[in-house]
User: Fold this.
Amino acid sequence: MCNIQLPKGVFHAKRKNGESYYRVSVTYKSKHISLGSFDELSDAGSAYTEGRNVIDNPSISINDYDDSYSLSFEKFVSLINFRDNGMYFKNPIYILPKYFEYYYNRETVYKFDVDDLFFYSHHKIMKRNGHIFVADYGMQTNILSRYGIHSHSVAGRDYIFVNGDSTDFRYKNIKIINKYKGVCKSLDNGRDIFTAKIHIIGDFIIGRYYSEAEAATAYNKAVTILKEKGLNISYEENYVEELSPIQYAATYNAVKISQKILNYTL
Assistant:
């Protein structure tokens, strides 16, 4: 191995089991950037050439990535952003004048406000079963929670993307309609009505209220009543943020609950 001339930017290494592999890196603007590890010397050499080409040619854009490249798409995006904006991120982020793009892959690009740049430069976006999340302090955190949207919320019912683009997570593009579990807003003769429902075997209507906070409190009260009746279902209760502890207690005591809930039997 020592007699083989390695391409520029390529370094020979060995795994614990003795197998050889090749580490690749490039230096740009005094920053040493890892381009990845490769089993084949030819792939390692290609990755360095491709990375260097991206850095040295401002005309190359993210759309120019080719599946035949040895360089990963994520690293391709990171290099272009560093070249154009002078900031290097390990995550595939590209900064634009008023927001930034996060390239989950070549087909899916999420948009975020610049206020979220630090967070997403340190948290990798993942997706499973339609849920978009990051690993935060060892936990899977749905990115919608950053907007006050709960895990039970349904797009189109509890929140909407104002411009219709479900990849646009800029704050002005997300409108929360129903922020509390079990509460849905509707319009009755020009007035907002908040219906509280709870799922047992099918949905049971707890009541209809003129206040969202009252409806959320009614949901919590229904949960307590059902638990006291021996219903063994794990319900997530609402934290009613707009009520002080004293106001919440008064609302809880006064709010009326459907007789169907009060008379429920197992």
User: Anything to note?
Assistant: Residues 73-177 form one domain. The chain has a mean pLDDT of 94. The radius of gyration is 27 Å.
